[in-house]
Amino acid sequence: MMFKDKKFVLGVCGGIAAYKSAELCSWLRKEGAQVRVVMTQHATEFIAPLTFETLTQSPVYLDLFAPPRAYEMEHISWACWGDAFVIAPATANTIAKMAAGIADDALTTLYLSFEGPVVVAPAMNTRMWQHPATRANIATLEVRGVHIISPETGPLACGEEGEGRLASVRTIVDNLAYLLSQTVTKARTPRAHPETDDTTSFQLADSDGPLSGKTVVITSGPTHEYIDPVRFLTNPSSGKMGCALARAAAQLGATVHLVTGPVNPTVLPEECATIHKVTTAEQMLLAVEALRDKADVFIFAAAVSDFRVDRRIEQKIKRTGNSLTLELVENPDIAQAIGAKKRPDQVSVGFAAETHDVEANALCKMSRKRLDAIVANDVANPRIGFESDDNEVTIYVQNGDKRFISRRPKEDVARAVMEVVVELLQQKQRNKQV
Ligand code: C5P
Q: Under a CB-based contact definition with an 8 Å cutoff, are residues 397 and 424 in contact?
């Protein structure tokens, strides 16, 4: 049971998604957690407190001034009781009050006195979510350490389509599990490098891990497509995500081959992977092809240049006073080339860095490249992606499953990706046995 002995305070606000918090509550209970529910008055218009009282076997906290049942002040006693306070759905109104520190009902009063981690899963109409006031309030809460689980894009109760749907119950549960594991790690694990604030220090590989006996091939970093001896086409990929994936796979017991484009050598995980250094996309394809038969898993995390010059110019191009035209040809798509020939038992996972229509583009790439899963991120967001130490992604799986991994260090995103890889391998194993 994922949440055995854990205690959650579940805050429910007044939006149509309030009915989904009953499912969340029931899921948390099935995973062994104790749950206490606090509702806003508006939430009771959508779902009855009795539903939560039945699911949790305890009274719902609704009214700051109701006669005390056991002479306790819930907003103080519950604040110390819970391991985490999760507010799902959180409305624009409650988010605004939290950001401003207004405490005019049971839920917002409890928020101000709550000691542990606070998780907010907003749900609202797209325009309300995108309104500058809501954006500013969310940013304020994030700065204060509140963990935001962004809403999903899809059909909304109001009949419109867009960003604003409550994240799936699965996503909320995954995020809670992650958050609690972080709280425990930070409190209990001694740091390997006490001089740094490195809470994601490398652990020894697990020889009994779920990937022991498996070979994982990872592409990583950018490629350099030379135009002349000193100039090349490239992108700002640092290779950090690929290296984090290599470490995460090795920790689960895998034999790891990292095929990397030119990156800062200090990021390379030489301690746990065989490193294959390449420069161009064509070289990267050859290196992956050479490893193809022995691979159980491919992860395509490289930011491969889609184009190169047809013929590299032998000598450094000189100024002539005229403009210069470069003709580019397409590079091979490594993920697609491998996907076209992969065995049914091999798992392949790709990445999709998108600036718009993230979900549609990612799903299209997953099918075109015959991937089992794709990890999509929005590179228009400057807080995450390319050179950053953090990432925020959604993992889309072929069976329709979708997991949002909120902003966190790339090492933690890598672990979440490897969890999906393990599940996919187990699934393929089961299919083979049938
Ligand atoms: O089409 P796009 O480049 O956005 O696809 C991204 C995915 O495909 C990533 O997993 C990337 O590593 C992989 N890719 C590849 N070879 C290319 C281009 C992308 O393997 N030439």
A: yes
